[in-house]
Amino acid sequence: MDEQKQVSPLVKMGLELGPVLAFFVGYLLVRDQVFTIGGRDYSGFIVVTAAFIPLLLACTGLLWWLSGHLSRMQVMTAVLVVLFGGLSVWLNDERFFKIKPTIIYLFFAGLLGVGLLRGQSWLQYVMEGMMPLRPEGWMILTRRLALFFAGLALANEVVWRTMSTDAWVNFKTFGITVAMFLFFMAQSKLMQTHGIVQKD
């Protein structure tokens, strides 16, 4: 098994969030423009999506090269970006890319739900080294996170189906990031109640 290498948290954050921020900035720059390529007109959203795909893959590959490890979520995100982003570009239809977050969040909500039905916290399997919790703490956190992911999937559907592309880009770039930060901040009491104090 490959040993995971230590990577600077700032470098890791830059490689994970950099492509998302680049997408946001790129969209702001060209959102009102139409590009004619090969006789077809493409909106700025589609052009930025086409640029986002190789950028995300490059950053994901660099993260793997530096750390020797990628999480399941990172791998799945890369696969779905290629699939749904590619469909958006190929079919010149932005809806495919907008539905990608829904698929990701439903997948993880369902995956955690299956584990819960089996009486297991599959979240513990992935994150145990990061957050030492007692088994009951992992089960509570897993239930909450499964519901949270389902809520994000629903929110993404509501936003992209009822609001403008500008609103969706802002929601995807900032809304989801803030929601995740607040969710984990809200788990501080759970961490205190069910956390395991590690002794030296």
From TrEMBL:
Record-annotated membrane-spanning stretches: 12-30, 42-67, 73-91, 103-125, 137-155, 167-186
UniProtKB keywords: Cell inner membrane, Cell membrane, Membrane, Transmembrane, Transmembrane helix
Biological function: Plays a role in cell envelope biogenesis, maintenance of cell envelope integrity and membrane homeostasis.
Keyword Membrane: yes
Main location: membrane
Family per record: Belongs to the YciB family.
Domain of life the protein comes from: Bacteria
Subcellular location: Cell inner membrane
Protein name: Inner membrane-spanning protein YciB
Membrane topology per record: Multi-pass membrane protein
Keyword DNA damage included in the entry's annotation: no
Organism, scientific name: Plastorhodobacter daqingensis
Organism ancestry: Bacteria, Pseudomonadati, Pseudomonadota, Alphaproteobacteria, Rhodobacterales
One Pfam family hit: IspA
